[in-house]
Amino acid sequence: MENTTHPLLNWIPYKLIEKENEVYIEWLYLDDKKYIDPFFDETISKCKSHAYNSTSFKIVSTVENLVDWSDELVSADLKSLVFHVSRCGSTMLSQSLATSNENIMVSEAPLIDEILRSHNFGTDKKSELLRSALKFLGQKRFPEQKNLIVKLDAWHIFKAGFLRSLFPELPFALLFRNPGEVLKSHQKMMGMHMVPNLLPPDVFGISATEIGEISFQQYGALVLGKYFQGFLDFYETDQNVVKLNYNDGMKSVIEKFISFINIDYSASELEKMYERLNRHSKNENAIFKGDSFKEEVLEIDLTLVNSLHEKLENILLEDITN
Question: Is the pTM of this model over 0.70?
Fold first, then answer.
């Protein structure tokens, strides 16, 4: 079943707008574009040139409209939420999954983050808005689409308990990597969450005391340590989780993930996924030749973050042996 007659076919909510103490939803027309870009922001940018999106006025609705309109929408089945620590193969995972015509792969959609971090809604309203937003993002626009997979932002691990309350039976994935490699990647091109105060420190559960006189580079290790601790804390209370280690190889990561979420892809679909691993995650036209930062030297104390990473690896080994 598709949405061929739904009046909002190919329209998605993509942004919250606050005005005069009220919150509204801005809408975007997708036309025939699929989510095949490494990040959802890139898809948004491409769509903005469409005539429907480039007029002098915005297409805006109330948040109540979003909820009401989603009720009659046919969506692909939500199969998993992917949590990650950044620079750990999450983009490669999502790009590989996006090669399958059966998948709708949403990678770090800004609206999801805006809803999760908004101070304008209580828990119940956030739950309602998130469900409705995912129905629109996962709308069946093409007949072969069956599965919706959502890669979250790295800091959403701190919302994992809330998301579990929304989706009690849904498989969650936790993707991580050797901390030295993660931080070397950020040293080469810093992600915004690793820059002090670009995101409020309390997003990561970081206190003013912890920041203290910490160096710019050390702040990244502090954030990464919080991610690892978040993974460990969540796994202690939840077993419907698969732990994926980039350092085991991305083919192993994809195989393990697909097995866990229990989707039976055809041989040709799997071949496309594995073939994508040969090209750069953020530029499919470039051959992937390995990471170019391996030889860089970190002037960071990794004692704590290495200890947390070791705990995650040990849990992974216990799972394998059991």
Answer: yes
SS3 29: strand
For residues 24-50, one letter each, b for 16 or more C-beta atoms within 10 angstroms of the residue's C-beta and e for the rest, the string is bbebbbbeeeebebbbbeebbeebeee
Domain range summary for the chain, segments of one domain joined by +: 74-321
pLDDT digits (tens, 9 = 90+) for 197-227: 899 999 999 988 888 878 888 999 999 999 9
How many H helices and E strands in the chain? 12, 10
Angle among Cα 112, 116, 120 to the nearest 5 degrees reads 115
Closest CA to 1 of 73, 70, 74: 74
Asked if 166 and 160 count as a contact pair (C-beta separation under 8 A), the reply is no
Q: What is the CATH number of domain 74-321?
A: 3.40.50.300
Cα 173 from Cα 246, distance rounded (Å)? 12
The answer for residues whose C-beta is within 8 angstroms of residue 146's C-beta and 6 or more apart is 76, 77, 102, 103
Find the DSSP H helices in the chain. 40-47, 63-70, 90-98, 110-117, 123-137, 160-166, 179-188, 208-211, 216-237, 250-261, 267-276, 303-321
Contact 138, 78 (CB under 8 A): yes
